[in-house]
Amino acid sequence: MPEKPPAPQAFPAVLLLPGDAFDTQGHQVMGRRVAGREFARAMAGSLRSGEQLVVAGLAGEEARRLGSLLQPRLGGGGQLVITPHLPVAQISASGCLHVPDPNLGRWTWLRAAQSHQVFSLTGVIHTLCSETVVSCLHNLLHAPLQSWDALVCTSAAGRSVVQAALEARLEQLRQRLHISQPVVLPDGPQLPVIPLAIDPEPLQVPLDRQQRRLRARQALGLDHEGFVVSFVGRLSFHSKANPLPLYRALDELARESPGVVLLECGHLFNAPIGQAFDELASRFPALAVKRLGGLQPATEAEKLLTLEAADVFTSPADNLQETFGLSLLEAMAVELPLVVSDWDGYRDLVVHGETGFLIPTADALCGQSQPDEVELAYRLGFLDYDTMIGCRSSAVVVDHPALLQAFRTLRDNPQLARSMGRRAAQRFESCFSWRVVGEQYRELWQDLAARRLAAAAPAGATATAEASYGELFAAYPTQAFRTRQGRRSAHCLDPALLQSPMNQSLLGVISGQRLDAVRHLMERQAQLSLEDLTGLGLSPIQATQMLAACFKLGLLEEVTPREL
Q1: Nearest in space to 518 (alpha carbons), one of 561, 556, 470
Q2: SS3 183
C-alpha cells in the first residue's frame, strides 16, 4: 500500500490579500498595490519544500488573477491555497495572520472568546496621513493587541509617525480619564522597521550599464551625449511632488550647458493636471521635457527605457502621502545615482554622498503643536483629502542651491555618477532585495511565535476588547430568547418561507449558508432543536439565532411540557 504524502507544513503566516491590496489590473496603479503584489510574489517564491501558503480574502476573478500571478513563482515545491474565507484553524496552525494595512485592531475579533495566544497579528504601513489611517493607529491603543503582534513600519520616518500618533492619543486619554500618574504605551504591537522590496528580474537584461543606456536613448530618440535625468512615479503636483523645484534646477543647469533632458514617466490622473504640468514646463524653455505615459499609465517597458536612458534618477518628493519610495529601489537596481529630497523613507534608501544626494527640505508646519486651518477643515469634513495633502506640500521647501549643485556635480563628474550608481545597486542587493527582506519577515514571525508561546497562558477565555452587540443592546428586548426546541403543527407556516425573497439572503448569512439543510430537516421531522442545528454544522450562537428566526416566521411553535 503506497505511503500517504506528508501533510504540508504551514507557512508562518496566512496572508489576507483582497484585490484592492495587490490587483493593479482591476484597480488603479498605486504604490501600496504594487507593494502588495510584490510582497505576495516574494512570499510565494520563498516557500520551502512542503510548505503551504494560504491567501485569504479572494474569490472569482481576483482569485484567478492572484493565482496566475503567484503560481509561476512558487518555490521549493510549495503549495498555494486561495480562499475567500478567513480560516481560523489554518491561521492558528500557521501562527499568524498578516494584513496589508495598519488596521490590526479590527482583526482581534478573530481571537474573540479565545486566548489571545491563539495566533499573532501583523500588518504594514503605507500612506499615514489620511483620517482613516490615523483612526486605525489610534485604535492600536484600544484593541487587545499583544507583544506578539506587530505593525511593520517600512521606514524609520514612518515609525516615528506611528509612535507620535500613539503617544499623543495616550496623553489625550490620560487627561480625559483624569489619570494623574504617567501612563506608558502597552507592550504591543511591536513596531519593527522592515523596508519594502522589489524583484529586480524585470529590470535586468544581459547588457552592461553603458550598452543599456545607449540602446534606450536610441529607442527614445535622445542624444547619446546629453545629460538625462529621469523621474518615475505619479505625475501629480498635489500628491507626489510639485515639479517646479525640479524644472527650475534643471532649466538653470541647461542654461549653463545645453543638452539637459528630463524624462517624466508615470500617470496623469486627468487632463487638467496634464495641462498644469505642460503650462509649468513652458515657463522653463531651456529644459527639454519628454514624457512617457500620461493619461494612459506608462507601461513597464516605458518605465524600463526611462531608467536605462538616464544618467541620474530624481524624485524631489514633498508630500505627506509618501512613506517609502519603491521607484527609488528600481533606480538603484539599474545602477543609477539618486538625487532625491531628504524626506520620509527616502533617507533610509540613499546614503548621502555615496549612492546619491539627499536634498534638504523644510516644512513650515514642522513641529507645530496646534492644527492649522487646513487640517481643521479636513478633520471636520469640510475639505477633501487631495486638497489637504496638496496644501501641506505647498509649504514644503526643497533646497534649490543644493538640488542644482547635486545635478551639476553628477553632470560634471560622469565617473562619480557611475560609481555612485554601482554602489546604489550593491546597496539595493544587500538591503532591499526580497532575498533579504523576505527573510526579515520570517524572522519577525518566528520571534512573535516565540513571544506568544513563552507568555503565561490566561486562566480562561479572553473577552473581546469591545462589548458585542448582544451586550450593548441587552436592554432593548423584554427578555433573552432561551427556547431550545420547537415543534411543527398544522398551524405552522410552510418551511419554504426560509428561502422566500424576503428571507433567503439574511437567513443564509445567519445559518452559515446552510439554509437548504435547515429547510430539509424541518420538512422531514416534527420538531427542531438546537442540537439538530448544531448537528448541521451551525455554531451554538448560529443555532440559537436560526431557531429564533423559525419562531419569528411562524414555522415553529412552543413545545408543551407534556411533549417534552
Answers
A1: 556
A2: coil
CA distances to 24, 53, 534 from 21, rounded to whole Å, are 9, 17, 36
Tell me: the pLDDT tens digits for 128-168?
Answer: 999 999 999 999 998 999 999 999 999 999 999 999 999 99
Contacts of 39 (CB under 8 A, 6+ apart): 22, 100, 196
Q: How far apart are the C-alpha atoms of 144 and 268, rounded to whole Å?
A: 42
In the sheet with 227-232, reading across from the earlier edge strand, the strands are: 288-294, 260-267, 227-232, 312-315, 338-341, 356-359
- Classify domain 201-431 at the CATH superfamily level: Glycogen Phosphorylase B; (3.40.50.2000)
Which grid cell sits at 396? Answer: 514644503
pTM here? 0.88
Report CA torsion sign: 75, 81, 84, 88: negative
Write phi, then psi, for 443 (nearest 5 degrees). Answer: -65, -40
Confidence of residue 364 (pLDDT cuts 50, 70, 90): very high
* pLDDT per residue as tens digits for the range 527-547: 999 999 999 999 999 999 999
- pLDDT computed for residue 113 by the predictor: 67
Whether 9-195+442-454 shares its CATH topology with 201-431 is answered yes
Q: Tell me what percent of the residues of the chain surpass a pLDDT of 90.
A: 75
Q: What is d(CA 249, CA 21) in angstroms, rounded to the nearest whole number?
A: 36
Using DSSP, how many helices (H) and how many strands (E) does the chain show?
22, 18
> Which cell numbers hold the place of 411?
553632470
Domain chopping of the chain, boundaries: 9-195+442-454, 201-431, 477-563
Max avg pLDDT among 111-125, 254-268, 465-479: 254-268
CB atoms within 10 A of CB 128: 21
Extract the C-alpha cell encoding 549: 428566526
Cell of 6: 506528508
CA distance 21 to 15: 11
Cell 489576507 belongs to 16
Tell me which of 3.10.420, 3.90.930, 3.40.50, 3.30.70 is the CATH number of domain 9-195+442-454: 3.40.50
